[in-house]
């Protein structure tokens, strides 16, 4: 009923609104085109075109069939390549989760441009998560690779790790903040009087982590690192920012560093991937091992590991 020739004929008539134009394009007679469409309508049991002496127009059923036929044709045209790809060990889809601390639209676009050229038939899906949400997504949501998994040890036997480096932290406030003029290390009681600005952990199954919050301290929760930075620039509270992100604001005087008694320790981040991954994931791992150009945008905020 819907072989490739019938589908191509139907699409051509629907797009040209003409049996004669379709006949010219497909090197057929108008009568042959008209007969094929008539047989199709009889097979599906409903009218697909409204015919006049000059043109043909799709019925509502015809509009629906046109959308489906375009999808089917694209699927059939791509199927030989997909089958070859599967036999070669290349995934049909790769899901990548990225830590909010390393997330960059520019870096993502650069990596996807490289991957799309090398694996044109593979579909890539990107997710941004926070803290343990990265591990949660990798382990429970069918993702194959994580850029910026927290820690330097795997949480599952089937997951391999490559240490990327550490995020160094700096406690900051605006120059107008009451704590900005303090000399020497601040005690917790002094810091506790002002709200901490934190990005909330997105984990759903694993235990959530709190970045930095003193007992009894109020907290402002924001969805991403950019929002956290803007809150700091607006003087809404105190807290730690990645050193490499806040450095230019420290240099310009928009933020000032605070000396605190209990400094936040560097946070190790790793590349994590499923051991049974296919060629596309292995290629990404290779890019990170070599610190190749397509992935360098993800590394700009961390102190790189020398391992």
UniProtKB/TrEMBL annotation:
A Pfam family that the UniProt record links to this protein: HTH_1
Keyword Transcription regulation set for record: yes
Residues of the HTH lysR-type domain: 2-59
Keyword Transcription regulation found: yes
PROSITE patterns to which the protein is assigned, alphabetical: HTH_LYSR
Keywords: DNA-binding, Transcription, Transcription regulation
Protein name (database record): HTH-type transcriptional activator AllS
Molecular functions per Gene Ontology: DNA binding; DNA-binding transcription factor activity
Xref: Gene3D superfamilies: 3.40.190.290, Winged helix-like DNA-binding domain superfamily/Winged helix DNA-binding domain
InterPro entries, alphabetized: LTTR, LysR_HTH_N, LysR_subst-bd, WH-like_DNA-bd_sf, WH_DNA-bd_sf
Family, similarity comment: Belongs to the LysR transcriptional regulatory family.
């Amino acid at each position: 009923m819907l072989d490739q020739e019938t589908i191509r004929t139907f699409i051509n008539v629907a797009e040209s609104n003409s049996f004669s134009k379709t006949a010219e394009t497909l090197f057929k007679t108008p009568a042959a085109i008209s007969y094929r469409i008539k047989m199709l309508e009889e097979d599906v049991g409903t009218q697909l075109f409204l015919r006049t002496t000059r043109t043909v127009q799709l019925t509502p059923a015809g509009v629906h069939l046109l959308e489906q036929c375009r999808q089917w044709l694209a699927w059939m045209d791509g199927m030989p390549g997909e089958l070859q790809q599967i036999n070669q060990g290349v995934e049909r889809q790769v899901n990548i989760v990225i830590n909010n601390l390393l997330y960059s639209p520019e870096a993502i676009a650069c990596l996807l441009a490289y991957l799309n050229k090398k694996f044109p038939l593979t579909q890539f899906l990107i997710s941004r998560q926070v803290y343990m949400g990265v591990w949660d997504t990798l382990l429970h949501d069918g993702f194959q690779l994580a850029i910026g998994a927290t820690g330097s040890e795997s949480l599952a036997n089937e997951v391999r790790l490559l240490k990327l480096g550490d995020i160094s932290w700096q406690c900051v406030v605006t120059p107008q903040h009451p704590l900005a003029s303090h000399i020497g290390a601040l005690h917790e009681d002094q810091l506790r009087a002002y709200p901490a600005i934190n990005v909330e952990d997105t984990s759903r199954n694993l235990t959530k982590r709190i970045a930095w919050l003193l007992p009894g301290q109020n907290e402002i929760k924001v969805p991403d690192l950019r929002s956290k930075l803007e809150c700091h620039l607006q003087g809404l509270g105190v807290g730690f920012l990645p050193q490499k992100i806040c450095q230019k604001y420290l240099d310009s005087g928009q933020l000032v560093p605070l000396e605190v008694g209990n400094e936040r320790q560097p946070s190790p981040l790793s590349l994590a991937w499923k051991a049974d991954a296919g060629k596309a994931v292995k290629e990404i791992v290779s890019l990170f091992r070599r610190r190749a150009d397509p992935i360098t945008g993800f590394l700009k905020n961390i102190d790189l590991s020398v391992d």
